[in-house]
Specification:
alpha/beta, Protein-Tyrosine Phosphatase, Chain A, 5-stranded mixed β-sheet, two-stranded antiparallel sheet, 7 strands, 28% helix, globular
Amino acid sequence: MVIESLGGGAGGEGEVRPVMIEPSPPSIISSSCSAVGNSHAPAPPPPWTPPLTGDDDSDEVNDGEGLELLIPPLNFAMVDNGIFRSGFPDDANFGFLKSLGLRSVIYLCPEPYPEVSKKFLKDNKIELFTFEIDGCKEPFVNIPEEKIRDALRVVLDVTKHPVLIHCKRGKHRTGCLVGCLRRLQRWCLSSIFDEYQRFAAAKARVSDQRFIELFDLSSLRQSSISFSCSRRH
């Protein structure tokens, strides 16, 4: 509100009345972002992508001190209740893994498990199961059925849940194990292969899909799958 003086010459007293000034309308800022990509709501980081950090030293940034950023491993996904899959986690992913409350990790590579990762598992009372499966790229190399079968027995043991299955990239060896689990869950092959290809992408192998299709489930048919009732036909 502004006080305006009216009338009155020099030395005279004029009428004084208030004048209301309307506030300017807020400016409209156009945005090319979609509704999903609201710039005020940070999206979860993609696999293996480090968190974005700005150069702003404002109080808003500093107010986050003490909060731990949880970063999932490469190709991380939930397979079923209490069962997860991913690529090889590194120390940047430890906080995220801890939040899952894991009891077990199934490791499908022949390379020795890193000492820093072993220490993390030990400190958090997480049991490590190693099944040394070579990551062969040749098309007609046999995948060791017995090792996949033994790994499946761990997956089916609910006392080991929550469990994380991982290999190097979370594509082929992990995809074969999860594909065999899906057959136990009576998924149709087209759904199993769709899931496999979603993670393997351009690296999908016909030999892996053939292995999943022909894998002998007879010794596992009696195993309880009480952790899930999910099926696809």
